[in-house]
Amino acid sequence: MYRSARLRQVFQMEKMDCSDRPSPGGGACYELELYIAVYQCEGLAQGLYHYCPQHHRLGRVCDWNPDLAQLMAGASHATRRDEAVPPQVLVVVASRFARVAWKYEAIAYALMLKNLGCLYQTMYLVATAMGLAPCALGTGNADLFSQLIGSEYYAETSIGEFTLGSVPECLADEPKQLMMEPVDWQA
């Protein structure tokens, strides 16, 4: 998270504090919040965490529970994996809508999705460079997520999900080989 979402600098602009982060964000509003659902990660207990970009810390939101298991099963289903085997880590990207809605009004949601795409790209690049297996998901359960974090749905809820895991040993060298081999796109 440090390489893709940390807070590098805070500055005042118009009516609010803005920030500088590794991934671009429209208007420097940075409405996106990262929640890390952990099933299997060395050094972290199973549960849901909130990422604090200012101090690069994880704050525990809740322990592993049936609702979190259901959220993870949805992520497994989206990746066509066995739902009984959750992803090792699921990054749930939530949006605090008011951070951009006051300024961008009618285009606020479109801007949030563009910011999400920028964050996804940064996370893909970082995870791949670290030798991890990243996968952005095109689905998620925003209602269930709001219940898990105890938020009002229209104040903060999920707009994207991203799985992270280790690359199976049998595929560990495959990406390097693919990058070195020329690809015949016409074949």
What does this structure look like?
This protein is of the alpha+beta class and about 190 residues long. Helices cover about 35% and strands about 30% of the residues. The chain has a single domain, classed as NADH Oxidase, CATH 3.40.109.10. The protein is built from 6 helices and 8 strands, in the order H-E-E-E-E-E-H-E-H-H-E-H-E-H. A 6-stranded antiparallel sheet has the order 5-4-3-6-8-7, with helices on both faces. Helix 3 crosses helix 4 (about 110-130). The radius of gyration is 17 Å and the shape is globular.
Task: Summarize, please.
By secondary structure, the protein is α+β, with helices and mostly antiparallel strands.
CATH superfamily: NADH Oxidase
Low-pLDDT regions:
none
- What's the CATH class label? Alpha Beta
Q: How much helical structure, as a percent, in the residues?
A: 25-40%
Number of domains: 1
Largest sheet, described in full? 6 strands, antiparallel
Number of helices: 6
Cα Rg? 17 Å
CATH fold-type name: NADH Oxidase
Number of strands: 8
Shape estimate: globular
The sequence of SSEs as H and E is HEEEEEHEHHEHEH
Q: CA-to-CA gap between the ends?
A: 38 Å
Approximately how much beta-strand content do the residues carry?
A: 25-35%
